[in-house]
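Troubleshooting log. The previous structure file for this entry was overwritten by mistake, so regenerating from the original sequence record. Sequence copied from the archived sheet and checked twice against the printout by T.R.
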Amino acid sequence: MPADPMTEDRYHYGVIARALRIIDDAGGAALTLDDLAARLSMSPAHFQRVFTRWVGVSPKRYQQYLTLDHARRLLVERHTLLDTADAAGLSGAGRLHDLFVRWEAMSPGDFAKGGEGLVIRWGWFDSPFGPVLVMGTDRGICGVAFAAETGPEAAMADLRARWPKASYVDEPAALRPWVETAFGLSAAADGTGSAAPLHLIGAPFQIKVWEALLSIPSGHVATYSDLAARVGNPQAVRAVGTAVGRNPVAWLIPCHRAIRKSGGLGGYRWGLPVKRAMLAWESARAEAG
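Regenerated output below.
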């Protein structure tokens, strides 16, 4: 096993990513600790320690968060009205502090150019939710796509289609420090490093919706109607849903926390198993915290 702390963290991060995929692929069937550990070539005791350190709860408890009615329980127990979240200090700066990111938006005029003149670097990385494609400009991360369900070709095509006139450069090394900060693998994850910047490239209405998504605290959910009210247009639920689906920075801007009034998950660009895993991960950490 790697001895260097940072290398060891990356190794464990990969272990947990594989474990979450195994659990999700089981389709709700409970897997024992011994079974999971064996599939990962680890002892049960060691796997339990590593999993609990990263996720916050035991593998058995985590599996309970992946049940189909978990979103409905979230709606009852952790449904966040966004104005209330503001008053409680749970949104905005608090959300950004939790993720160690800061963000700025592209001007409407620049957005209309389709990325013309932008140099966008890209690379593939590991995440708890499978392979992740990350793109960034000189200002920060502008695209995050998860490929576990859609496949790498679809993830790449989706992000590149958003900024068709940009120039793309395969350069993961330039993005790695931001990625490690945003996904909790660097010193910044302990509050001692620089924030990972986000560069939001979207239409003005989309950016308003994405800003509202940042108001949803980790481990909580909001409905599409809540988001429509937040952006000042309660009737625009369908348009809000479209804007949520067009969020280019998945996970970092938490579109996975938007669900239907019925408690249904709704759609998710990168696959409902990924959305379910994200909600389960955050619920587990919220409980542990």
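Confidence is low (pLDDT under 50) at residues 1-6, 87-100, 187-193. Archived copy saved in two places this time.
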